[in-house]
Amino acid sequence: MSCASCANSNGAPAGCKNNGFCSNDGCNKLTTFNWLSNLSLPPNTDQYHNVEVRFKNERKSFFRNESKLDLLEGDVVVVEAKNGYDVGVVCLQGELVRMQMQKKNFMMQAEDLLSVKRKATQKDIDLWQNGRAKEAKAILSSRNIAKSLGLQMKISDVEYQADLSKATFYYTADERIDFRELVKKLAESFKVRIEMKQIGTRQEAGKLGGIGSCGRELCCSTWLTDFRSVSTSAARYQQLSLNPSKLAGQCGKLKCCLNYELNAYVDELKLFPDTKKKLKTEKGNAFFQKMDIFSHKLWYSYQDQPSEFIEMTIDRVKEILALNKSGEKVNSLIDENSSQLVERTPKYENVVGQDSLTRFDKQNKKRKGRKNKGRNYQNRTSNDTTKK
Asked: What CATH superfamily is the domain 126-199?
């Protein structure tokens, strides 16, 4: 998806210096692949003229192409705004725009959409880039102003409108903020109209971007658009330890990827018996230790031998529970007709079969001693020859 200028001849990343605004729209966040672009339309049908235009970060919107301009993906266009105009990049055109509008319930509002004015000229692009260059300094100065007013908020991003008539400040806050005084200070400082927009911590992480614990870019900054609620029960269903430092993402909330495979785990857990019930045998009662969900295996231990893990199948556990319910006991957990494994928990100090970490220190001391003995012997021989 990336353009050829993103890598040099050796294959190492070089960077095209376009900061996500290259011509083919391949390096941008939340890019939609137009799989209908190469398909020809049926006869006597006109192409759908509405287009989807992308602005900074993940902000997108649909616009009417009233002038029926010949627009392609990656074209820089000037579009209408509520006050003035804005500049964006066409990220989707053709029949796929119709499908996206139906999916996002925009068809009822198709007549109320703003329109595309024209293709951007070099003057429009230069003015647009000047506004983008001011955003970094605007973030720092706005944070200082908010701090001087004692507001408990974090300004995470600033977006200038292309005509430099308005600046939108995105912020996060735990409580309700009265930013009337802040808006006055910002308007005096930047000489533009100010709009404050509150976002959540997940949206903030999507705007800032980053690398997750899996080693890949954050899902919220690449493809994830809808943020569903994530609870700790998702980790319990997947047999994960409830460690906040490992389950939380960069936004400070539970990772969105905990919901990706949750339905598969829930469906498999329906096949398992109740693990809270103890298994009654002639040797004694056994309690549940652990399970392998997709292998359909469980491990139980006797109460007097908790270090020995006995591997069992789901059918065997259900069979024992059915006999216990009728008042019968089995001889042992291990079925005589099948070969089941008994695992013993290893000792903690030798859990991976390795020695202590200080074992090399002793060897080094012995080697130093041998070297010193050799040096002493050489010194003695040299002293004897000099005396003679």
From this structure: K homology (KH) domain (3.30.300.20)
